[in-house]
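Researcher: We're teaching a course module on how sequence relates to structure. For the next exercise, students receive a sequence and then see the predicted structure as C-alpha cells, so they can try to spot secondary structure elements on their own. Here is the exercise chain.
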Amino acid sequence: MRYPEELIEEVRSKNNIVDVISGYVRLQKKGSSYFGLCPFHNEKSPSFSVSGQKQMFYCFGCGASGNVYTFLMKYENATFQEAIKTLADRAGVKLPELEYTPEMKKAASEKALLLEINKEAAKYFYYSLRQEKGKIGYDYFKSRELTDNTMKSWGLGFASKSSNELVKYLRSKGYTDEMIIKAGLASRDEKFGTHDKFWNRVMFPIQDINHRVIGFGGRVMGDGEPKYLNSPETPVFDKSRNLFGLNFARSSKKNYIILCEGYMDVISMHQAGFTEAVASLGTAFTSGQSSILKRFTDTVILSYDSDGAGTKAALRAIEILKEAGMTSKVLDLKPYKDPDEFIKNMGQDAFQERIDNARNSFYFEIDILARDYNQNDPEEKTKFHKAIAKKLCAFADDIERNNYLEAISREYQIPAEGLRKMVMSVINQTGLAEPLRPRAKSGIQEKKTAEDGNLMAQRILITWISEEPEIYSRIREYISEKDFTEELYGKIAKCVIDGINDSSFEPASLLSQFEEEEEQSAVARLFNTKITGLDGIPIEMDSKQDRERVLKDIVLKVKENSYEYYSRNLGSDVNALNEVIQGKKILEKLRKTNIELDR
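Model: And here is the predicted structure for the students to work with:
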C-alpha cells in the first residue's frame, strides 16, 4: 500500500537532493550541476552528476540514476517505505499510518512474524556456536581458516545434536508450533511431534538484499546425509529469487559479480577481499536470479567447481545469462577444485590474476565441446568444426558472429573461409540465423544510424527543454508531444510540456510514476543527454548564434522524423491525413525560419 502521491511529492520536494547526497558523497559544483565519484561503481574520475534544478542524480559512467528516493534505496539498501520514512523524519513531515485491508494486514503480519522467528533462530544458532556444545562447529570453521570477525559478520552458527532445542527456545519466546513450522525451522510427525529441522550442523543464515534473515543453510558435522540442508520455500524465502551474499556484494565497487556454487566459497572470497561474490541457494542457477543480478551488473564471472558437475552447471548458467542479455566469463581454477581451495593455496594476487584473465564464455563452451572429439581423427575433427559452425549460428548479429568466427579460427587454427562456408551451410539447412554479411557501408547500417540520430535528437530536445524551460516558448509553434515518436519519449515530453505550461514542471517528480528500476533509469537518461551534434560529436556553443543554430538543427530533425513517421503510418484515417498536411506546413515554415533566443 503506497502513501498518497501528494505526500510522496511533499516529502521529496522538502529534501534537496544536493543536500542529501552531500551527506554520502563529496560533491563539487561544475556549471549548474554537482559532480563526485559514483558510490555505485569504482571510478577514478568523477562522472556522478547531481542536479539541483532537476532534483535528480545521474552517473555518466554506470548509468545509475534517479531522484532522492532512488538514491537512498540504492545506497542504504532500503525499501521505499524505509526511504520515505527517513526523508520524512529529516524534513519534519509526519507520515500517516498506512491503511491495509484485512487480507493485507494478515499477509504483512504473517511475513513480519516469520522474519522475527528467523531472526530469533539466527541469534540462537549464533550463540550456540560459541558455547561448549557448539565447539565442533566452531572448530570446523576454524579449520576452514575463517576468522572470528568473519564468523560474526556472516552470523555463522551451530544447530546442536538435540533435535528439539530450537523449538523449545522459540516456544519460550511466544511463537506457536504452527508458525515455527511455517518458517521452515521445524517439522511435525506422529512419533516425534514438532521437532527441529536442523540439528548437528553448522548454520549459514541466508539474508535478503536488506539484510533480513529469510532462511538457513546447514552443513552436517560428520558423515550424515544430506551433507547440505536448506530451508524449504516459505512466504519470505524464494530460493529462485535470492542469492547468498548479495546483500554484501551489491555494495562492491567492481563492475562485475562472481557467481559461486557454495556458501563457504562466498564467505572465504569475501574474507580475502573479493566482496563481489555470491552463490545460488542449494539449487541450480535460475532465470529469476539472473534478473536480480542484472539490476547490479552486466557481467557475471562464473567460479564453479572445476569437476564435471561444476562444468555442467557453468554451461547451464551461461545459457541463462545469455538469455538475460548479460555477458559471462568463466574462471579457470585449475589445478584446484574451488575458489576457497585456490585462494588458500595460491593467494589473493593469483586469484585476482585469474579473474582478470577469465575466459570468454563462448570460448569456454568451445573448449568443452572439443573434449567430445578426437582431434587426431580427420572425421572427428570435421565433426568438431561442424559443431562449432552450429554454435556460431546462435549469434543473431552477423558482425558479432563474424568476429567470433575469426577469433575461433585463429584459436583453433581452422581456415576462416572454410568455417564460414560451414556456417552458411548450417544456415541454409536449418534457417538458424541470417547469412553472414560483410560490414555494410550503406543500406541497413545507414538505416540504423538514421534511426539512432532521430532518437538522439528527441532525447537532446527533452534534456534541453528540461534544463531551460523558457526555450519551449521559442519552439512551441513547431513542436508538441506528438513529435516524439518513441512511446516513452512521447509520454515524458507531454509531462514536460504540460508542466511548463502550468509552471509545475519538476523532472524528479516524474520518476515516482515509474515503479520499475529500468524504467526509472530510462526516464533519467532522457533528462541527462549531452547536447551534441546529430553525429554524437560534442560541439561548442559559446555564442548565441551557435546555440540558435544547434537548436534549429535539433528541432528540424525531430520535426522531419515526425512528419515521415506519420506519413508512413497514415492509413485511411482522415484526421491523420489532416495532421500530416498540417505537419508539412509547419515543417516548411520551420525550414525558412530562424529560431531566436534571448541572450
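Model: If you want an answer key for the exercise: The chain is about 50% helix and 10% strand. The two ends are 49 Å apart (CA to CA).
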